[in-house]
Design a protein that fits this description.
About 30% of the residues lie in helices and about 20% in strands. The protein has about 425 residues and is an alpha/beta fold. It contains eleven helices and 17 strands. Helix 10 packs across helix 11. It is globular and about 70 Å long.
Length: about 425
Amino acid sequence: MRSTIAIVGRPNVGKSTIFNRCIGSRLSIVEDEPGVTRDRIYGTGTWLNKEFHMIDTGGIQLEDQPYQNEIRAQVQVAVQEADVILFVTDGTVGVTDDDRYIAQMLHRSKKPIVLAVNHIDDSSRLASIYEFYSLGVGDPIAVSGVHGVGVGDVLDACFAAMPKEEAVPEPEGIRIAVIGQPNVGKSSLVNAILNQDRAIVANEEGTTRDAVDTAFQWNGKPYVIVDTAGIRKRGRVYENIEKYSVMRAMQAIERCDVALFLMDASLGIREQDKHVAGYAHDAGKPVIIVVNKWDAIEKDDKTMHEFEEKVRAQFVYLSFAPVLFVSALTHQRVNTILPMVDRVYENSRRRIPTNVLNEVIADTQITTPAPARNGKRFRIYYATQTGVQPPEFVFSCNDPELLHFTYQRYLENQLRQAFDFEGTPIRLIARKKVSV
């Protein structure tokens, strides 16, 4: 599991600048104006080959300002879910009453704290960091978020402060994450698959607050099913605890072997469905599209086919994913889910012999050569499979820049026709042949 670092401090001390430095992108808005960051912003970074989650929070002030109650509530949630708190202060201003108030609040959290004194842009300002010892939260670290100085020291200190996790063995078996928007029937489907009431089910959005692992067996094989919180559109997250739930859902996707993407047939395809399914696709996970509440639909012999056509049109990037129509309430066709889980899981682990792979690629290029670009034509000399979950193929070629996305899609389709990769994404990488 990735560790989580929450950045906390008063307004305009450079929290968002340091956040962007740590994760290596300009995800947070950076302005010289207090209160720009009001909500929690999540990012993922890497330091010394260790991945971590980071949360940027709004600035806390003692005096009443617009949105202060909301900001404090958001900060409290960030502190709750963090493993380490990065407390950012301003070396050009010195210790303020707001800093002292925040230090007291962080002390009560009982979480490890790393103290960064920002805006130490040159050595002449180094002496100003010593007064921050008075906050009683440890040794201050001089940082310049603008120039990146000291950011590595801060991350070193954060990782050194991480609580040592006890090794808890995870349950064995194929890990299934049930994902989707709130109130589409995820918990009901988990109960139907387990055939027992292991999860709380209610007709109220947001009942499931965390990802819950349940180990079970089917046909003598072990599985672990994870019921996750519903993922809403970013701009519609209102509850303080909601984003905490979303992060846990994202972590469940990272850890799963197969994602069951659940939709509500009675509501049809919604725009946010595409975003939720995209999280699993981007993580390279096998996906099964499960259309729930099919019992609530008035239908004839064409309804299922027409609905699947709509799904295919809206989820073009999931063209490989099978579509199942079920009712968690009546258990209609729920028995088709686990056999399909087995199938797509095995497909995600499929390895193709190199000689067979190259025969298919050679035939593909003979049948339909790549289109010429600037008088040159993309050509694959040799192909090899370099990984599974998802299957990954590397093409040794004359020039990767000549590979147009349409021909790459054609190559993927040819591989799918030749081999059973239903349910799993596959990755194609073109690399220039190295001359010896």
